[in-house]
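Schema walk-through. Below, the input block comes first and the output block second. Nothing else is stored per chain. Lengths vary across the set, and this one has 242 residues.
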Amino acid sequence: MSAQTLARPLAARVASLPAVADSTETGGTALPGVKRAAFEALDAGHTHYTDRPGIKPLREIAVARLASRYGVEYGPEEVTITCGATEARFVTVKQLVGAGKAILHAGDAAAVAGAAALVGATLTTDPDAPDIALVYIGAGTPDAQAQALAERAGAHGWWILFDAGVHDAGGAFHPARIEALAPLTITVGSASEQLPGWRVGWLAGSKAANKLRAYKQSMTICTSSVSQWAALGMEDSTYGNG
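--- output ---
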């Protein structure tokens, strides 16, 4: 019985989780730089737990990516490396939304739907819906619409989850560039474009950063050490847009 088959009963029991499709990936597609970095990490003995936030060089890559792509200035101490963007989204929704609350979005919340279902939150496109706790800005949200959602969040004190892992590649808006919104904005990203299956993502920023980091540690302690060191071998700056 495949892992995909075993996953189906759980998905069937949890409302709105998407069906699990059989994977056709065969693996073996890691970039040469990623493979080399992984081998070097093994030879150097980087096989145990890392610091809770993740290794600093990888956090610095995420910081550089956000500065280059969106003009957002974070320090590496504001970044936590996660087990893919999926874990980062779940940690954020679990800690900042919770059961009975709502997530406002622009019709593009598929990436966060599973996390919402698991915690008992609802998804809505109605800005006047009750019990909104968080605004999700993700794939395909035009800049003007994203800014309007973010500013509404600021007016109501809602959290903002900006998903750099799936955000429209053409967009340049980032809510953390607005000073009043920066404390409310959690940015999620992924290295999946260059490291599919290695489970490397991150979350950055907000006044809830320490709370989110602590909850991530309670679930997985830290992201796989070898995967983190392997991510240093990515050959260009697309980290955060995968």
